[in-house]
User: What shape does this take?
Amino acid sequence: MMIHKISPLSKSFFGLAFVTASVILSSCSDSEISSSDIPEISQAIFVVPEGYSYEPYKQHAPSSIFYVDVNEKVRVWGIYAINGDFIPTDQSTDLYSSHRLVLDDKESGASYIYCSFDSPGVHDVYFETIDHVGDTLRSYANIYVGSPTSILLQSPANGYNQVDGKNPNGLELSWQIYGVDSWESSTCRLFASYNVLELWESPLGVVDCTNPVELIGELDPDYNENGKKIDHSTENSTIYWGIQVIVKNESGNEERIRSDVFNFSTKLRNNGKAIIEVPIVSQFSQYPEKSKLTGAFISASGDTLSKITATNTNSIIQRTLQPQSNLKIVVCDTIRTEFGCSFMTVDLAPSTKTITDTLFLQDVVKPNMLPVSTEILTNDNIRFYILDNGTGVNASKISAIMGRDTLQTNFEDNTLSIPNTCKSECNLYIIAEDYARNKTPDVYWKVSVQGKESYITGPFTKIGGEK
Assistant: This one.
């Protein structure tokens, strides 16, 4: 703990300052006041997070060296102690005639400065106190501002699927580490696994952070995790890998950072054909089994190579095709028509297995709404059809407002029922959305009460004018 103490002359002054009035009026001489009666005043520098609201010594330690990140918001704080015990800032004002806290060229007459730094580097802190007899106490500290450490995996490119499984020449893995500053040291560990869930359990070894490594040995295992022999003519091997960097500063504090997870796959040992798998998902669909997929694999010249049919919209479609470029995959939902069609284009290299990104079918159509009847008995409920042939209407997201009143709603079998609370003429607003968060049009309806009968007209836009 870096605590800087006041000079002997200042000790005498502070000691006398804390003698009670009854002692001063007594006949005791100065020689009867021992050195142990004189409180020892000292000071220290703290750096704490900007939002920290307690006295800094309660959870943080003083020092002459602090480490913070670029753009990290902190408070630099000068704190006093009496006989080694820190005291609250608001109780220290009687200890000095003036003080100043200086951070680089920024000076404050208060006990703290709020700051952040937009670039790496070293910054000087200077805390100076002048006591009531003119003695000076000085404390110094350095703030080391470091860049956030990051790791960029470079090769093989993520998802690369043309690696020779025999690996006779070795496979180079490369990456780049950023943000290790001159006052820091770094250690890197390489992780790789056939199972992405087990990737970070144990490293393959420690590697040089600045140079690539060669992955040596055959990459195609003979058996899968269930003990079944792998047919490499139809199944490739996918290896997941990543880098962990351990950054340590001069105080011994460590930071551990993991990279993203990359993967690469081996080539098939077959006659040069390509296998493609396409995961298909109807986004936010409540009933995927009530849909029907149709589509096709289409060559760059427009020929249909293979048709797609599936009764569940959350499916994986697999085909074995000739290698080619710009293969187009088109999929549509012919029952839940609001999902429409989606497509993607991929390239297939010889003897590869390609698992594409998920092909999402998305509902972008607003629910439709219309009154069951425009003429009702005044005592009856008002009823509206709310129809959606995509993800379906979300009953929890329906609200109805008449005038300034929010009405109770009941939604069953695509029909909304609400009480008719109108007494003369009222505007009715109905808001609904489907599970894809498409909302009904921003309109309102008019309810006119004429004795025992009520009439519903609309819809109208909020700026006026009947549609």
About this structure: The two ends are 77 Å apart (CA to CA). The domain at 4-146 is CATH 2.60.40.10 (Immunoglobulin-like). The CA atoms of residues 351 and 449 lie 74 Å apart.
